[in-house]
Design a protein that fits this description.
There is one protein chain. The protein is mainly α. The chain is built from 18 helices and no strands. Helix 13 packs across helix 18 and helix 15 packs antiparallel against helix 16. The longest helix has 40 residues.
Length: 405
């Protein structure tokens, strides 16, 4: 048989693989193309921040549902006032037009970094699986210019690229939590780290304290401005768009979100997911990078108000878990991979067929159940004592629990 006849099937298989992978990016790509065709304005979320910064410079009101600035495509500003303050200085120097292009460049760099994290690094079989999770995103993940994308990129790059500098990740998550306090869920990276219990607890506590303190202090002592912020947050989180994760699930079944019972239920859900993550990483004895990626994915699922722009880091950890299961337990790995593929296909159909408000929350719920099921399987194949020992003392594969911080 000639070399040509051997290479031809390989090339065809590679072409088919890329074509299938491309399908999962269609909701995002078609949304962006549609935005270009309609000549609609871009970066509405940036516009809210820029307009709030302009109002701050003028001494005006920043928490206003009718926020309006000349030549700015703005929406309602919902972030901590410190963000508007920080933006106000470069805005005073560059002006709205210059600031827009500076932000666009930073946003483009962030999207590039996130695409690299999804499909530009790691083994080919991991990248292929990770790429499927693009199905959860729509074009708004790019054209809305949400500031969350920049912080997802910062957290992802620091977590993976500077894994031996966990203190930098603490600062990155704390900074992101200043913008969106719900990003504290990325503390899951430290929960799953291959360290002794005391070190995991120390870093997790540091993230929670540093990340939550500015918002809690402002809500307590910010006076009327804090009241305005609280009212806007309550409306957009609990009423307008509860998202595709825990808050969205409650909304689908008609349960109130802004109640003590809902908060307790969320804490229970988060605890179950973190325990499941611990069983997986300790039972499979995953290495440091795999734990980091899985912690990022878990952090995404734990965001109670999950939006389209928040799915960038969902795939790498779950894809890594699928490959790890395939390597250690082939049948279970195939079942887990098939489940993930089915969920991604369902999310793809939901976004393309315009039933995302129902379909995507159900897909995320299915991901959570699949994750818990994987933990249940790992538990049946492992020693509970060994899992608890690794959690308490640290993973035996880690060279030193005292790596540079």
């Amino acid at each position: 048989m000639s070399t040509e006849t051997i290479e031809a099937p390989k090339k065809n298989a590679a072409w088919k693989s890329y074509a299938i992978g491309f399908l999962f990016w269609l909701p995002l790509l078609s949304g962006v193309v549609s935005r270009f065709k309609k000549s609609s304005q871009w970066f509405g979320d940036y516009g809210a921040v820029a307009c709030a910064a302009e109002k701050w410079l003028q001494g005006g009101q920043i928490y206003n549902r009718e926020l309006d600035c000349p030549n700015v495509h703005e929406v309602v500003y919902v972030y901590h006032p410190a963000i508007a303050q920080v933006f106000s200085y470069p805005l005073s120097v560059l002006g709205q037009q210059g600031m827009f292009w500076a932000y666009a460049a930073l946003f483009a760099l962030s999207v590039t970094a996130l695409i690299w994290l999804m499909i530009g690094r790691g083994a080919k079989k991991t990248r292929k699986r990770s790429s499927r999770f693009a199905a959860f995103m729509t074009g708004s993940a790019i054209y809305w210019g949400n500031i969350a994308v920049i912080f997802h990129a910062l957290i992802g790059v620091v977590a993976v690229g500077l894994r031996k500098r966990p203190s930098l990740l603490v600062l990155a998550i704390a900074l992101a939590a200043l913008v969106k306090p719900l990003f504290l869920t990325f503390a899951a990276v430290f929960v799953l780290a291959p360290w002794p219990f005391w070190r995991r607890a120390l870093y997790t506590l540091a993230v929670v304290v540093l990340g939550a303190a500015p918002s809690l202090y402002f809500l307590q002592y910010g006076g009327e401005l804090a009241t305005q912020w609280r009212d806007l947050i309550s409306y957009f989180v609990y009423v307008d768009r509860p998202g595709a994760a825990f808050f969205g699930w409650l909304d689908l079944i008609g349960q109130p979100i802004d109640t003590p019972a809902a908060a307790i239920a969320y804490l229970g859900f988060a605890a179950i997911m973190c325990v499941a993550g611990l069983i997986i990483v300790e039972g499979l004895n995953l290495d440091g990078e795999a734990r980091t990626l899985l912690g990022l994915s878990l952090g995404i699922i734990l965001i109670p108000r999950l939006m389209s722009q928040d799915f960038w880091l969902l795939g790498p950890g779950l894809a890594t878990l699928a490959v790890a299961l395939l390597d250690r337990h082939a049948r279970a790995g195939k079942a887990f991979s098939l489940a993930l593929l089915s969920i991604c296909v369902f999310a793809l159909l939901a976004n393309m067929a315009d039933f995302a408000d129902l379909g995507v929350p159900l897909a995320v719920f299915a991901l959570a159940l699949t994750f818990i099921a994987a933990a249940g399987f790992v538990l049946t194949q492992s020693s509970l004592g060994a899992i608890l020992g690794s959690f308490w003392r640290g993973a035996p594969t880690e060279a030193s629990p005292h790596a540079s911080a």
